Amino acid sequence: MKRILLFLATNIAVMITLGIITNVLCAFLGTSVAELVGPEYANLAIFAFVYGIIGAFISLLLSKPMAKFACRAKVIDGSEGEAERWLVATVEDLAMRANLKTPEVAIYPGAANAFATGAFKNHALVAVSTDIMGQMTREELRAVLGHEMSHVANGDMVTLALVQGVLNAFVIFVSRVLASMLSGGKENRRGGGVYLLIVFALEIAFGMLASLIVFAFSRKREYAADAGSANLLGSPASMIAALRRLGNLQPGVLPNSLKAFGIAGGKKTSIWSTHPSLEDRIAALEGRAV
Fold first, then answer.
1. How far apart are CA 152 and CA 157, in angstroms?
2. For the whole model, what pTM was predicted?
3. How far apart are CA 225 and CA 115, in angstroms?
4. Mean pLDDT score, 243-272
5. What is the DSSP letter of 252?
6. Does 287 have pLDDT greater than 60?
């Protein structure tokens, strides 16, 4: 509930701030918002605000079934075999340590990776690939599960969706207001062609900038999830070993909606990365061990 209230407050703050900035720019240009965008300005602000909320909540509510479908993940209960029984028992133990209800546990076919998703902390899904189960020791896999449970405990899935919602509202609102200004205001906008082209170009540009913010946030949460795993296990050693093991494996590629919550990342950090490099993550954990 706190995150939802924060999301609503942030969207309102964004809309108010954008309104102030737009009016200042209009004053500088010697015109008014009404002349440039007409009475639809208020409707646009409402639309952007609502779209940000609806888009975020729809993505959250559909995250579990979509993840199962996209990865062909099969939910297990531990009765399938000894390996599955250990996996479920380990997640139950980690959930208890994190003061959470045990999430659904699933296995999906593919290269080494794991992810967590879900709209609510106590109704989440943790999934691991068949390859990572076969390639890692149990202590390493336990650290990976601790990493994913930390994502759940930290509410990272919810927070990232809310951040994306705010940014979506920003992109919709600002691209259309600026397009109206650049195309000569309401009268010229009625022609449609130039205005729509400018909107399209601005949405691409602002969308890319918004993605950089999302990626930066995702990288920060990866460090937090690594640290959370170390806390749940009582030492960073197993998480360090798991990351080193990942460096020697071919990482599995997840759908875009799940990449931020996978365990595997690239070997280098860039502004377009959802994960810091494995070396940077290991260095951060080694710093905790000093």
1. 7
2. 0.80
3. 12
4. 79
5. P
6. yes
